[in-house]
Amino acid sequence: MAVDTGALPIIDLDDYINPKSPASKERVIAEVRDASKKYGFFQVKGHGIPLKAQEGLIRGLGNLFHQPEEEKAKLSFLKNPGRRGYEASGVGGLRAGDAMHDSKEAFYIGREDPVLEPPGFYGPNVWPNLPEEDCRSPIWEYYQGTSVLGRIIWAILLQGLGYSADLLDEFAKRPIVQMKMIRYPPASLTKPGQFGVGAHTDFGGVTVLLQEPAKAGLEVQDSETKEWLPVPSIEDVLVINCGDMIQKWSGGAYKSAKHRVINKADTERFSCATFWHGDASAANLLNADDGDKDTIGQLLFKRFKSQFSLPKEAKDQPQGVAPHPNESGMPQQVEVQ
To answer: Residue 213's closest CA among 40, 57, 86, 109?
Structure first.
């Protein structure tokens, strides 16, 4: 049953994953549907990802981000055609309305595929030169857990709209699942008015977010009042939200809400967001009247094009074609959400 902790409810997914009765499963579907329609965000417990795996991730992030700057720079995502690796603070481009760059630094991974497939949604990850048990193993264990959870959330969202969960098999045979690990510096090291991450919406499907316990910073905008709602950081509770693609596919039934991050504490803060989209080749299966037949890959590429610095030839390419490389052979990436 959902717990009211202020604006965003905490929903117990165990009643769906391990239902005691058909009614308990239907109750979770209804709670997720209602929160997604009202806020586009909700919190979950009983999600199936062990607390030990969450704690292991946080330790792994500390080891990852506490490396010397020169070591992290060797793994820059700007050197990687698959957009995997390290993003230094201040590298991202400015969003409309932002006075300065985000203060965060980040690291990106995705599905572990042996061969890069343009434009980079599938391919191998890059990892730091650290002992396996100190970084890669705990991070990968958590990634796999959120890969399972993202699929469960998608199934619940579909059922909330009256579809069968089996519909997921038609657009998620080889889903794009990207994970962004983030470190926010202490408040004393940020500039006045600088955000950890400025106001934005997520561009794709389901987002699964872990906030470091007792270190809140996420704020969600109420679409009606425009008020910024703080989201508490609670141990073993994850935050779920719908991206722009879900809002589009659902015909606006589910919201994609603006959110931002402000680290107000004078300590560093870690978080981790997994973006669960679907197959690159899949298009909107929920709305037969949708005249826009863009695939998931094309929708993501459109979003990336608005955030990349691309040569004119690349911007003139048909949707879904890989970005044109620069002289170094790599896409000229400016900002990645």
So the answer is: 57
